[in-house]
Amino acid sequence: MGIKLSSEQFLEHAVETSGLEDFGGDTFQEGLEALVDSLNKDLDLEEGTAGYFQQAITQILVNRLQVTQLVKNNPEIEREEIQKPLFILGLPRSGTSITQTLMALDPLSRYLRNFETTGAVCPPPQLMPSAPDPRIQACHEGMEGLLSLDSDLRGINGINFMALGTAECQNLTAYEFVHAGWSAGSSLFSHGNWVGECDMSRAYAWHKRLLQVLQWKLPNERWVLKAPLHLFGLDCLLETYPDARIVFTHRDPFDAMVSGVSMAFHWTRATTGQANAPAIADWYSALWAKGLERALEVRSQLKEKQVLDLFHKDLSHDPLQAMEAIYGHFDLPFSRAAKKRMQVWLRDNPRSRFGSHNCSASELGLKPGREKKRFEFYLNRFDLTRGRS
To answer: Mind spelling out the 3-state secondary structure of 202-252?
Structure first.
């Protein structure tokens, strides 16, 4: 029998560590229970995996306590306006990361940095700090430690697994324990299924609160955010941010699933040693097909100027032209400085820099016929072979 966890131990430890008691409501407890239950039932927990999740869960709870106190002490934070944030969403492995990375290079963009979201949030960053933020080095060491678990991991996530790199904003909805990375990265299937069905309204309320905290001392022209998770909560996202601008990335779903299942398999193998490729393949593609179908229903209700479809083939063929299309569609100024920064980054960061992870569909247990049937609604709506809808 492996280690068994309980939510009470995390709550008590967070209160003891922080010296605070107000979690800003108890809506997070359903998600916490779902995660702990999944850890106990879906895995034979060993010390390494248990320790990783103990640290991650406790950090989120401590952050909730500290953010709640910070907002109490500084009520002006809640008056921060998050105007026209730009969200990039689509299937995992469909181009969301490279799109955000390039847009984040624009001096007018504000994006989430990994060191801001994987460790302590308080105190918030400042425009001219008196010393380097100690979280940067800690985050770098933590990420390098994770990447060292499996030589393929850098090829899978090297583009955004850097302390100062772009972070997915599901790291903010994680304050309600709504996060797809835990299930995909450790085969916590039941928690992933819960995420796919839960009411995300409170998760997006915390998402907004944290953006207000981060913007309070470090403002900029616009937020550029991304997470495939938004496929499951696009309706709640738009209720929270009615003026949000949406970039919807598209890729042949079979190609996206091969890459995504390979990612999930390698991360599960590294973090738990309990990776079952066929089981991952069946669960992973079914979950993301459900999220994609739900998001497309919401997307069909949006005004033309509020959403842009971006095709993976177009993005891969000419990234700068794809950026010009985004900026043009949303009437954003595409400055010479922004374009030059993107050109330099593309020159210095070829795909080969991060390596690769080559697994065939058959090795992973993916069946073309089954996937075609699962994503038939998507294939009928978009011409994904030529990059046009």
So the answer is: HHHHHHHHHHHHHHHHCCCCEEEEECCCHHHHHHHHHHHCCCCEEEEEECC
> pTM of the full predicted structure?
0.94
Cα–Cα separations (whole angstroms), residue 72 to 23, 62, 116, 176, 213? 12, 16, 21, 19, 12
301-307: which pairs have CB atoms within 8 A and are 24 or more residues apart?
Answer: 302/238, 302/246, 305/329, 305/330, 306/244, 306/245, 306/246, 307/245, 307/246, 307/247, 307/248
Total Cβ atoms within 10 A of residue 301:
11
Fold of 7-381: Rossmann fold (3.40.50)
DSSP string, 36-100: HHHHHHHS---HHHHHHHHHHHHHHHHHHHHHHHHHHH-GGGGG----S-EEEEESTTSSHHHHH
Average pLDDT rounded to a whole number, residues 337-352: 91
For the ranges 178-182, 221-225, 286-290, 352-356, the lowest mean pLDDT is seen at 352-356
Task: Reply yes or no on whether the pLDDT at 122 is more than 80.
Answer: no
Q: Is 90 left (phi over 0), alpha (psi -120 to 50) or beta?
A: left
- pLDDT band of residue 353 (cuts 50, 70, 90) is low
Q: Are 194 and 83 in contact, with CB atoms under 8 Å apart?
A: no
- 249 - beta bridge partners? 90, 310
What average pLDDT is seen over the chain? Answer: 92
In which order are the strands placed within the sheet that holds 109-110?
109-110, 222-226, 86-90, 245-250, 307-311
Question: In whole angstroms, what is the distance from residue 265 CA to residue 281 CA?
Answer: 9
- Classify residue 388 by its DSSP letter: B
> What would the two tokens of residue 333 be?
């100024």
Nearest to 150 by CA among 59, 67, 262: 262
pLDDT of residue 388: 41
Task: Dump the DSSP string for 150-214.
Answer: -TTHHHHHGGG-STTSB--THHHHGGGT--HHHHHHHT-HHHHHHHHHS--HHHHHHHHHHHHHH
Instruction: Compute φ and ψ for 383, nearest 5 degrees.
Output: -90, 90
